[in-house]
Amino acid sequence: MTGQDSHSARNRTWTARLEYYFTGIESAFAIFGLALMLALSLVEIVLRNFLHYSIPGADVLIRHLVLWVSFLGAVMAVRERHIKVEIIAAWLPEIWHRRLERPIFLFSALVCGVIGWAAARFWYQEWLNAPAGEQWIALLSIVIPMGFVLLTLHFAMRFVIGPRARARTP
């Protein structure tokens, strides 16, 4: 039996289960967005080169899909500990690293929350001032505040749940 089998979703705390389901949904959206972006780009290349035609609005949609996939990728990188926010911990002894993880998660959640709030206010103004025919573009732009909200949620969940166990070396 592997370590992953012994820690199934039903044996976790409710916060760990919540994080587990969030990450599954985020991963599905990231995969779907990447596949759609690649397929739409390929179709655009074929249409432009062979039929001298382009799908109206496809270039704007592809640009926004790049943002969506990038933000979801950032969320997954934070979740999997590929991105660490520990400028202060880099200069401290090893014993302090574990003690500082929760405060760093809290600080990161607060920073991302403030940026997300500012991005939401900016997006709302963009939505209000968008011409009637271009509101779908403003709707796609909600990725920036949503990305920061997702980052905030993940940092906050890590603050509540606590740091992940470090991989043990035999």
From TrEMBL:
Pfam families per the record?
DctQ
Keyword annotations from UniProtKB, A to Z? Cell inner membrane, Cell membrane, Membrane, Transmembrane, Transmembrane helix, Transport
Subcellular localization, as worded in the UniProt entry = Cell inner membrane
Transmembrane residues, as ranges?
A: 20-40, 60-78, 104-124, 136-161
Q: Return the GO cellular component terms, semicolon-separated.
A: plasma membrane
What is a single molecular function from GO for this protein?
transmembrane transporter activity
Which stretches are annotated as coiled coil? none
Q: Does the keyword Cell inner membrane apply?
A: yes
Membrane topology category = Multi-pass membrane protein
Domain Tripartite ATP-independent periplasmic transporters DctQ component intervals: 37-160
A Gene Ontology annotation in the biological process aspect, one of them, is: C4-dicarboxylate transport
Q: What is its main location?
A: membrane
Family to which this protein belongs: Belongs to the TRAP transporter small permease family.
Could you give the subunit structure recorded for this chain?
A: The complex comprises the extracytoplasmic solute receptor protein and the two transmembrane proteins.
* Function (record text): Part of the tripartite ATP-independent periplasmic (TRAP) transport system.
Protein name (database record): TRAP transporter small permease protein
